TrEMBL record:
Any one Pfam family match given in the protein's UniProt record, by short name: LysR_substrate
Residues in HTH lysR-type domain copies: 1-58
Keyword DNA-binding: yes
CDD domains (UniProt xref): PBP2_LTTR_substrate
GO molecular function, one term: transcription cis-regulatory region binding
Domain of life: Bacteria
Swiss-Prot/TrEMBL keywords: DNA-binding, Transcription, Transcription regulation
InterPro entries: LysR_HTH_N, LysR_subst-bd, WH-like_DNA-bd_sf, WH_DNA-bd_sf
Family of this protein: Belongs to the LysR transcriptional regulatory family.
Protein name: HTH-type transcriptional regulator AbgR
Amino acid sequence: MPFDYYRIFYYVAKYKSFSKAAKFLHNNQPNITRCMNIMESELGCTLFIRSHRGIKLTPEGEQLYAHVAIAIQQISSGNDELNRTKNLKSGTVTIGVSETALHLFLLPKLEKFHKLYPHIKLKISNHSTPQAIKALRKGFVDFSIVTTPLYCEHPLQSQRLCSFRDILIGGPSYKDIGFSPKRLRDLQDFPFISLNEGTATRNFYEKYFYQNQLVFSPDMETATTNQILSLVQHDLGIGFCPEALAKDYLDRGEIIEIPVKEHANPRDICLLTDSTRPIGIAGKKLLEILMDSEG
């Protein structure tokens, strides 16, 4: 049975009139009547009681209408929701992001996106880089924004968004060692504060120390960079932190920079996507903003 027959049946039953249904459907009454006669013939039962006063449904017609009405209303709701999505009046974007990528890159982009499309819901998960890669692989997020070092293989794709630089920082009591560049080897007796194992940042500094024939063995481990800043601020040790995140603390004199002779390479903030999973309209709009170097 063609779907159009059920659609015509729905509006004939709703308006209790062939002519009104024809007008609503931009059709003509003879064609509407013909379709309903064919439908009754194929179903093998009478759906309408016809009289000069109009039509009404038979018990079989009422039974069919109860089901068809739900289907038509669901389809109508689906069309309405799709139109809202196309017009960016509805939708959800899920993002996996590391703490550093959130503060150094994503926040101003989200601010711009939200101003343009305030009806789009954003679901943001705070992950380490390995966790964000895993969430993307499992389809928990539409895309991830993370920091290097990272390792991803097909079907995941990585695209560089921007770079940043880490610096070594200490609290006020370390100001005496902040006047001139120090070798890493000369700093090993000081208590180091670092992110937990398994994070991209921890992996980066373990490799950095190894390349300089040293072992990175922090005395304190934290879950976030903000915690490193707080611990350093209270003179509990020294630690590496993105320069941009430390700037306000440095300007206020709450922490000091400890220059290091063995310069660490800049790190990147990258966008990760899964080439096998399509991204919705709202997600594509956000990606446009993320990739806009002037935005």
